[in-house]
Write a structure and sequence with these properties.
two-stranded antiparallel ribbon; 59% helix; Rossmann fold; alpha/beta; 547 residues; nine-stranded mixed beta sheet
Length: 547
Amino acid sequence: MDVYADLKTQLLHINQNVSALLGRINAMPGSSPQSFQSWENICDHVKNQLSEELIRVAVIGTIKSGKSTLINALFAGDYLKRGAGVVTSMVTKARRGNQLKATLFFKSWEQVNADIERALVLFPTQDWRTRKEPFDIRRDSDRRDLEQALDSLDSKNFLHNDTRNINSLYLSSYLRGYDRVKEFLSTGQLTREFCGKDFSAHRDFSGNDVLAFYLKDISLEIDSGDIENHIEIADCQGSDSPNPLHMAMIQDYLLQANLLLYVISSRTGIRQADINFLSMIKKMGIIDHMIVVINCDLSEHESYDDLAGLIAKVREDLAIIKNDPEVYAYSALLSLFAIQRDHLSPKDIQRLAQWEHEKKIFSFSRDQERRFHENFRRIVTQQRYALLFRNHFERLKMIVSGLDHWVRVNQDILAKGADEAALLLKKIKSQEKKTARVKSMVKSTLEGALAQIKRELRNDVDHFFDTRSGEVVPGLMDFVKTYNVPLYQYQDRLSADGFSSTLYLVFQDFQHGIDTFMAENINPRIFNFVKFEEDKIKEYFETITGP
């Protein structure tokens, strides 16, 4: 039984009844509609919020850790492209729906051109451009100039620390994908839907190394699995992506998420990239909302003892970041294969049979998966719906209590004679004057409190960003001052390309380094600071307005 949906339906029904009752009161002769306007606004607000209420789950981890496979298993089907790796730069959000539907959100031409302008830092000069205006990929001359400029670059310019230079990847991908998207984007319509039997066609964009750069977001509706429709599960870009902008995208979603599922592959265990990312999550102050899933690659482990040793090592490493981490270890691919048993290829059927033959590992994986699902449902239903509904319930309770008081007063007036009724009305008007004075006092108190908390916040912000003793600026300045230029890496380039070109390459590497430092160290501290200040404001006003 979907407890969340049942309670939500009941609360919406109560809200509808209260709203209808207010409407009937307003229709009564002599009634002033303004008397209950604030209560009607609350009912409308409750209805809108309940209709839009979402529990957001972020699935995060390094590239190739099995995030997409885990989500596919949760939705009981192969819906998200597996093994997309660094290509999945956007966040793919999946929810339960009535039909299979993929909605792709494309970047506008302005956003594409802005990406290209940032990536043009690849070139030391702009001499290759025939026009001095801002770059516009829609212009034939701009595309032609850029293509010739890329062709003229030495192959060494396309590599950075033995990986593909992200700026060259952006530029070449946008050029190669232009002809495929130009007609569609030129219409001004930035969304495209693939429904039913056409659902899988969305992978032609999301899993394409070139076309994926034109995508901003992906939203999937899936009509299978046990995930309830109030839960949104997001497949986030790998945390070890070479592009710092991707990390910023992940951080944006993490700030909205109610629960984090961190996926670690048993092939690699915890790597330095995991330590860095987990440390960042801790700095953001959200690590307590995290569950860790060790995605077991059963083909990599010769025995149960080998797998158990790996799990123990992962737990030990995690304890450095988080005390007593909640960890589950199972094979998401085994779960997915078991669900799709009748539709597997002969090779995958053979793999599944081999895993099932390893009784101890197989039983362990299935038991861990069952325990994970039970706890996952408990967190996103039993715990979360109480928090989500509590405020709405209290607001409706306040309205009903007020209506009960209003009815009793009117019953008293109707039950009394003219003289007694007049005396009662006189008392009510006297009480209204007292209430007005109390409201004035409360307003003055809150205005004074508001001024006080603003002063405190201003002092906190000044201290946080102080250039000498603050929490972010000194660290950033130290990074700049102590940045080490590995000269040996540039010796060959210096003799081949000259001083100016080599110096510009050093600048590119420095810029990438500072962008990464900002994403991994500065941004999380700012997020945690903002969260701390928000809690401080909440506690401050609760202290003033509480009983």
